[in-house]
Each structure stands twice: as C-alpha cells, then as structure tokens.
Amino acid sequence: MSRSKESFNKKEVRKKNEKKRLDKEKRKLKKKENGKQSLDDMIAYVDENGVISSTPPDPTKKTEVDVESIEIQTPKKEVVEEQTTDLTGKVTKYDNSKRYGFIALQNSNDSVFFHYNDCIDEVDYGDKVIFDIEQGHNGLKAKNVKLSK
Length: 149
Hints:
There is one protein chain. The chain is an alpha+beta fold. Helix content is 21%, strand content 30%. A 5-stranded antiparallel sheet has the order 5-4-3-6-7, with no helix packed on it. A two-stranded antiparallel sheet has the order 1-2. A hairpin with a 5-residue loop joins strand 4 and strand 5 (111-115). The longest helix is centred in the first third of the chain and has 27 residues, at 8-34. The chain is elongated, with a radius of gyration of 37 Å. The N and C termini lie far apart (112 Å). The model has no long low-confidence stretch (mean pLDDT 84).
C-alpha cells in the first residue's frame, strides 16, 4: 500500500529524521569498534609542581603537611593600642560636604581616616596637623586633630 496523499514537505521531514537516525547508529557502531576506554586511561595525576600528567607522582618526593598550620579563614586584625604620642601629618583629602578626610603621616606613606567630630580646630585640605590614633571600626582613625603651629 502506498502512503495517502503525503505532501512534499512531509516527505522531506521524514527523510531528514531517517537520516539522523542512521547517522546516530553509525556513530554508535564506530564508538563500539574503537573499544571502551579503561579507567586507567582517564585518570590524571598532579605532580609536586602542579603539572598534570598521565604518570603517577614519585612517592619519594612526597612531603608531609602540618594540618594545623593551614588557615581556612582570614586572620583577625591585631588590635592596635592607642598611641598617646602626638603624630604629625598633612591633610591630603578632605570633603567639606561629608566632613571627613585623610591625613598622610609625615614619616611614612600611610594615611589615617579622620572625621570632623574628632577635630579640635577647623581643618582643611593641605593643613599640617597634630593628632592621636585609635582603633576604629574599619582600621586606624585619627582623634584630637588640631592644627600644627
């Protein structure tokens, strides 16, 4: 028996699907002919330098690692005690609208945050100041900021 009134488009779709099925069977047979890979062929090793290779590493080069010395989290910041000595520096940045800024220490490249509430005198950008340091929420913070004479 012949197929009933099959359109050209339907014939093309049927041929396309048949071709896909045959291609899939061919690939399956080809894979079978190549043989199965063993687990040993799929294993990769990492040597002491971090290089991936197919040969296992030399057990004589193995080193023991002290498990207790491995830190999993970030270390906590050390609490800096308040310095009572007067430090000198220069105001490098100051925002008048938000009333905070940074002071560059005179003897180093470090900078310290300060807020208007911690100032004794009125300070502005470029002023030389004397101040003390205390530990703030996010790091060191200047307090008792006053103009240098």
